TrEMBL record:
KW Ubl conjugation (keyword) present: no
Species whose genome carries this gene: Roseivivax jejudonensis
UniProt-recorded name of the protein: TRAP transporter small permease protein
InterPro entries, per database record: DctQ (IPR055348), TRAP_DctQ (IPR007387)
Membrane topology: Multi-pass membrane protein
Domain spans labelled Tripartite ATP-independent periplasmic transporters DctQ component: 49-179
Predominant location: membrane
Record's subcellular location: Cell inner membrane
Biased segments, Basic and acidic residues type: 1-21
Role this protein plays: Part of the tripartite ATP-independent periplasmic (TRAP) transport system.
Amino acid sequence: MSGGEDDRRQDTDAEPPRDEGGPIPEAGWLGRAISAGGIVFALGIVLAMLILIQEVVLRYFFNSPTTWAHETTIFLSGLAFVYGGLYCVARDSHIRVVLIYDAIPPRARRGLDIAISAVCALSSAMFAYAAWIMVGRAAFTPTGEFRLERSGSAWDPVYPGLTKVFLLAVLTVMAVQFLILTVNYARGKR
């Protein structure tokens, strides 16, 4: 074979290039929805910053701080960080040790992708179950009445209860996303 023929020959085991600007194809429709939802939580970070700037101005220039700014910024930032884990799953941008992964051929990587996604789905489901137990305590009284846990501060918002409910929702969606990834990796779908 000449050099030109070698260049034209395609390696069937080679992985196609991935678009770094969005979710991975294996994430499916759920990954696209998760990726699109990221803007909401990015705007939450911007809103938290604006609240903090307002609080600095009110506190140090007018000597009139608010009672709600600190807890609100923690709440908004916390939601963004929790969602960030789900966002990274859909985009395959989470931190991983690739010492072995990068050294093996693409077919073996596919097997690792299947195994890793299955283990992560199981782990996410178990964490979602633990979050369900936590939400049971944070959202319901012992008599079964719905009442979200409050912060206990002077303002006393329901942010702790809402955060726990949000964590349960994100972990549940994360388990489903990992199941979709497992199936699509096993099918070889891109």
